[in-house]
Amino acid sequence: MSRKPGAPATSGHRARKRFGQHFLADIGVVRAIVDAIAPRDGQHIVEIGPGLAALTDALLERIDAIQAVEIDRDLAARLRKRHPQDRLGLHEGDALAFDFAAVLPAEAAAAGERLRIVGNLPYNISSPLLVRLLDYRAIVHDQHFMLQKEVVDRIVAAPRSGDYGRLSVLMQAFHHCDSLFDVPPEAFDPPPRVDSAVVRMTVRRDREAEDPAPLQQVLAVAFGQRRKMLRGTLLPWLAQRGVSAEGIAPTARAEEIDVDTWRALAARVAAAR
């Protein structure tokens, strides 16, 4: 079977702002992303937002088949003409509402196989989508995403830095997070007004039993007024619930607390419910 589709068709489709469309057009960047993913036949790869198929085509040069989720009807129609269903299993819909568990065959799940999720994500949905994907981490091995560089910087940020916040803690609590490389605006058509970056997020298997909800609740309180000392925000909230503030200095601010301390606190909040 040939695995060499033609060059991505870039004409005849106007990027839609409501979908946050910026199509990756630099073949060097595409190859770098695929090299980072290192796909192999038999893996369950799901692409979010295949768009004009730049990444899709490159993946299908390496492996027999992938699945994809596309919200744009016109692009979905083009993709169906470009690749047969047995190579590109296309699901038309919104990734924010998509059931990712449905694309992993029951026998594969029973055998411990997991999804690998990839994509050039629309910037307007990236953070809520990352949070939603936490619900599927038991069936996900890793994620490779192109995101706004500012978002990637936040995901991988260390405590006591300006980028460290709710997203940093929540993503690092459940993934090994690595910023792989930056991508300039001119790599896209149309070019966005910001730099982008590619991030790898590998699910931490030893934390599958942890519920993200208590951690999200604690972080919302603590980072809601991040410039304030925690004695005026988080500590009263904990006291009202009879939860120990062990490990939290009253004069500390939220960005000074490391991920493991936040996890330990979230576990105490969960136990007190």
Q: Per CATH, which architecture of the largest domain?
A: 3-Layer(aba) Sandwich
- CATH homologous superfamily designation of the largest domain: Vaccinia Virus protein VP39
For the secondary structure, the number of strands is: 9
Computed over alpha carbons, the radius of gyration is: 20 Å
What is the CATH class designation of the largest domain?
Answer: Alpha Beta
What ranges have pLDDT less than 50 throughout 5 or more consecutive residues?
Answer: 1-10
Separation of the first and last Cα atoms:
57 Å
Write the CATH fold name of the largest domain. Answer: Rossmann fold
- Whole-number count of domains: 2
Look at the structure and give the mean pLDDT. 92
Encode the helix/strand succession as letters: EHEHEHEHEHEHHEEEHHH
- Overall geometric form: globular
| Neighbour order of strands in the largest sheet | 4-3-2-5-6-9-7
Largest sheet: 7 strands, mixed
Number of DSSP helices? 10
How much β-strand is present in the residues?
Answer: 15-25%
> What is the helix fraction of residues, given as a range?
25-40%
